[in-house]
User: Fold this.
Amino acid sequence: MSCPRQPHRPPHTSNSGFVVSKFIDVGERRLDIEGFHSWAMGNLVENRNRGIFAEWLVGQALGVISEGDVRLEWDSYDLPYGATRVEVKASGFCQTWYQVQPSKPIFNIAPRRWCWDAKTGEMVEHVPPERCADVYVLCLHETKCATDEGVSEHPRYIGHSNGSAEQIHATTENVGDPKYWKFWVVSKHALDDEFGAQKTVGLASLNGRFGNPIAWSEIRDALDLCIDGSQRASLLPES
Assistant:
């Protein structure tokens, strides 16, 4: 079953269409809405924020986010690229808590029995469970140097092949810099063929089956090739 996507809502609007101003006056107090954005999303090292930023980063690479677009929180996939449904998954070596060694990056690729259709407001059942997007972009944040531009975050650790650990800083600055990210662009059919109903995948499996990751500037070309390959495969007769 297809999972249609709801058009983007205008900026700073609620579901009812009420426009939210930048400031809200409450008696003698003035609340700065932009201050809320900084407070809620200011630390891009935090897992949820890093994941949302990865969606935006991929959207920028694909040119599918226009000025004034607002992220849709609930849908069966993250980004529309023409008629192609794109799902973005992010992981990284560093966390916001103290670490004696780096985390092991893992990506969620689980098939789903239920997918939310944002256009109709209904849950769509898939039996057997399936992956609802056409293409998956798996994003790895690799912190390789300290860019602690006055950011007071705790030190993180990045491991080396010889087993040692280098104390560095994972910061909003290097999360926000595309050069510290690597990407795999993989079709739904490739994930199905390689991993079946497997729920997660790590770096060794990705590199072993799909080759080395690509840079941010290569995402769009890789996705176009992925779409083209999937379309050609769909035209082949069944054996």
The first strand starts at residue 23 and ends at 26.
